[in-house]
Amino acid sequence: MNQLTAQAPGGVPHLSQWQGVWRWLLLAFALVFSLGVAQVAHAQEADPNREMSTAAPGIDADQWRQVRSGETGPNYRDSRADSNYNLINASGETWRQWRNRWVSPFGLIVIGGMIVIITLFYLIVGRKHLEEPRSGRKLFRWPLFMRALHWSVASLFIVLALTGLNLLFGKFVFRGLFGDAFWGWMVSSSKLLHNYLGPIFSVLLIVMLVSLIKDNMPKKHDLEWFKKGGGLVGKGHVDAGFANGGEKAWYWLLASVGLLVVASGFVLDFPNFGQGRDTMQWANLVHAVGALGLTAVSVGHIYIGTLGTEGSLEGMTTGYVDETWAKEHHNLWYEEVKDQAVSEQELADREASKDAGESPAPRSS
What we know:
Number of helices: 12
Number of strands: 3
Largest sheet: 3 strands, antiparallel
Structural class: mainly alpha
Distance between the termini: 114 Å
Low-confidence stretches: 1-18, 35-44, 359-365
Mean pLDDT: 81
Radius of gyration: 37 Å
Strand content: under 5%
Helix content: 55-70%
Order of helices and strands: HHHHEHHHHHEHHEH
Shape: elongated
């Protein structure tokens, strides 16, 4: 019987057995302690300069300046995804400075300034009411297809504007109010909506622009419309066809800046066609500046079409406008279509007959 198996009566281990266990514990502690002391001694003897030269030989201030200036070399090139960029991408810092110092303040100034101007205009001038009483006779202006197209584009525009503003400015507002968790959900949802609804908006915008191009070709009387500020300057009504000068300006702004925003959005939305980071950085700046500018102008467009002008909104909701509204705002178009005016009672009868015609007819035996 050896010491490790010998036991006293009652199953209690002998003292010699406990001594063997303690020897093994002391040996393990000594081994761990010696390793710790060795690590401390090695750390004290380390030469940082020598280790730096081994890990990245020859790194000095001049070489970092070369990297930052854009010079390439095998020792400081980012090789990810066949990239030729340096470890320090100077263009990325330039993009960040442009975005934070110029684009973001530009957005706050133009959108905030437009809201302030419109608010002051409404408080001082007020709503544009019809000068003559409504005639009760209606002119057909917008077919169902154009109304559905307009509201689809408008709804998507508002969603894209709000999600884009959240991506640009939201962290300065909602992150502090609701915390990181809620803000993380907000920015993730905004990015998802923006990326997926953007292409749908783009297609519908192009369809709308093509559908309206005939009525938005510039005419000589449009120049006079701008000179008189759409009727705010001087006396009398300003000549306007189906679309007045302001509506045409909004159309061509969408046809130019809007399509530029669409194109830059596709560059950002589909980064799998070989565009590099520099291209996407410039696309981001173009997209942001164009979208912020359109958002600011859209505030004016929304105001004029809803609260600012009596009778404008009903044209895009019902398709019909009052004869008086047509005379005062689009007199040249009114002269072309005035023979097609119908009374409100006639419109009601048409709707009633249409509803009756849509009901299933009784079967003949």
